[in-house]
Design a protein that fits this description.
alpha+beta, Protein Transport Mog1p, Chain A, seven-stranded antiparallel sheet, globular
């Protein structure tokens, strides 16, 4: 009986188990085309693997910083709507989705913290609240001009355990809202914390907005 009691006490005092890391293929965490909030989207860039070098080359964290933080893998995709008149369109026109996987939550958190300064320092950038999203989240907006129309760019970056996500949504200023981006971010978070989705396989491509 004493042995059984000791065993019970030992179990009761044990440290809580560490949550398992999210280790699916990064492309499995990306949004599917059927999860977008507006019709008529096609793939401008189908889901593809990212390396630390390619992330740095696209303006993300430096590859040395990613490697030091335990970067393991990454994936990205881009969506586009070919519209006849951007000046009157409601909803997003371009959506870019990226996920970066790290060996630990601490590694993802360190890169997330460094990314915030870069996002806030972008010309014309304005920080905005995201509400509850993942383990940590930040968002910014800024505007540019495309073919005579002012385009709003909304960037949401958030962390889910050892994953770091970046969602960039663009559309006509006044026609696209931060809520459009945040809804997509919440959908991706649901995928990442346990609801699986098949990897998209679309191949259509269109010309993106020039900013």
């Amino acid at each position: 009986m004493l042995t059984a009691c000791v065993a019970v006490l030992t179990i009761g005092c044990a440290a809580p188990a560490t949550p398992p890391l999210l280790r699916a293929a990064p492309t499995a965490y990306l949004l599917g085309i059927d999860q977008l909030i507006s019709p008529d989207f096609t793939y401008d860039s189908t889901p593809h693997r990212l390396t630390a070098v390619s992330i740095a080359a696209a303006g993300g964290a430096a590859d040395a910083q990613l490697v030091a933080a335990g970067f393991a893998n990454g994936a990205a995709e881009d969506f586009f709507r070919d519209v006849p008149d951007l000046a009157v369109l409601n909803g997003p026109v371009q959506i870019g989705d990226t996920v970066e996987e790290f060996d630990s939550a601490n590694g993802a958190a360190s890169v997330y913290g460094a990314d915030l300064g870069r996002l806030d320092a972008a010309p014309g950038s304005t920080a905005m609240s995201t509400g509850a999203l993942g383990d940590a989240a930040h968002a910014t907006t800024r505007t540019a001009r495309a073919n005579g129309t002012i385009v709003l760019e909304i960037t949401v970056e958030w962390r889910v355990d050892n994953l770091l996500d970046i969602l960039v949504v663009r559309g006509r200023d006044g026609g696209v809202r931060p809520d459009d981006a945040l809804l997509l971010a919440h959908r991706q978070t649901v995928i990442e914390i346990g609801r699986s989705t098949s990897t998209p396989s679309g191949t259509a491509s269109s010309t993106p907005i020039s900013s």
